[in-house]
Amino acid sequence: MKIGVPAENRPLEKRVILHPSELRDIARRHEVLVEEGAGVGVGILDAEYRAAGCQIARREKVYAADLVVRIKEPLEEEIKLMKHGAILMSMMHLRCAPLLESALVRQKIVAVPLENIKDALDRRMVEAVQDTGRIGMEYAFKLWGRDPATATVKIMGYGNVAQGAIRAAVDKLAAVEILNRRHFAEMQKHIPGTDILVDAVNRPYRRDVAKEPPYVTFEMLKLFRPMSVLVDLVANPEYHAPIESMKPTYMNEPYYMFEGLYHTALWGWPAMDPVNVSKRYSLQVVPFVRAIADKGLDHAPRPVKRAIIRLD
Predict the structure, then answer these.
(1) pTM of the predicted protein model
(2) Which residues of the chain have a pLDDT value below 50?
(3) Alpha-carbon span 89 to 111, nearest angstrom
(4) Rounded to the nearest 10 degrees, what angle do helices 274-295 and 129-144 cross at?
(5) Which ranges constitute the DSSP H helices of the chain?
(6) Residues in CB range of 10: below 8 A, 6 or more apart
(7) H or E segment at 261?
(8) pLDDT tens, 45-95?
(9) 3-state DSSP assignment of residue 227
(10) 3-class DSSP state for residue 215?
């Protein structure tokens, strides 16, 4: 099988999905094409991929492979470079990305969303979920700009993402309060005195129904202290976030100011720790790539087969 590893395309994105050490065994039996410079952002030179048996190729040739593997979803013009019936493995979050889904349908791509690969207990097998909470919390302290030990942090939710944020805040000796569902209906009572509000609520996103009402409305923003920080760790689609004034941000502009408050909702928090997270993903993803390449999708491991979306 011909396997393509393209460079990531988002502004300031440094990660690469597969490292040379993990690809060495696969490259002995299959043709592995890595886009020129794909690993430079995490300190991996093209020569290291060549030493592992991979070929360094132009973007067009990489996307023409039978199996294309990357971290974030490709752009529409990149999907057009893929051949009909090819397999794409990447983070996709198609429920929030109707334009991406349409592009995949037009190109007849077989999608294997990495976030859908789960074990028998429905736990994601390719993830950096608690890292997301940690990285987002650390960035919030950076924006706030004062001694974290003097901060009052309130965290909405108690899932895996929230737990990463909780640990990071506790490690910094901040005062931490956990807000759960019973608090969300009366957020106006919990906002006063808050320095950093962290949204770690993964609400269901439905395209065809009215959006759910926000928990923190525009009107409530005046209850925050000036220069407080609002963080969305889930990066909900615009107009669907629990914080009404929140919209996704990206590495080139990771935050914005609104009503005198910092807002940040990075679409891909792990990108802020590219070296560690890139290596983590590489170790998690390579067994699935090897299985697909060696056995084909029909005989792939059960978690992969359950994740497949055949768009037509």
Answers:
(1) 0.90
(2) none
(3) 6
(4) 160
(5) 20-27, 46-51, 59-63, 76-79, 98-106, 129-144, 160-171, 181-184, 274-295, 302-307
(6) 72, 250, 251, 268, 271
(7) strand 261-264
(8) 999 999 999 999 999 999 999 999 999 999 999 999 999 999 999 999 887
(9) coil
(10) coil
